[in-house]
Amino acid sequence: MDTQLKPAKQSKPSRPANPPPAEEEDAGAVMGFLDHLGELRTRLLRALVSLAVTTGLSLLFADRILAYLIQPYGERLQTLGPTEGVVIYFRVALLAGAIIAIPYITWQMWMFIAPGLTRKERRWVLLSLPATTLLFLVGVAFSWFVLMPAALRFLSEFQSDLFQAGWTADQYVAFVTALLFWIGVSFETPLIFYILARLGLVGPGALRRNWRLAVVGSALLAAMITPTIDPFNMLLVMGPLMVLYVLSILLSAIAYRQGGFAG
Question: Any idea what DSSP says for residue 17?
Answer without folding.
Answer: S
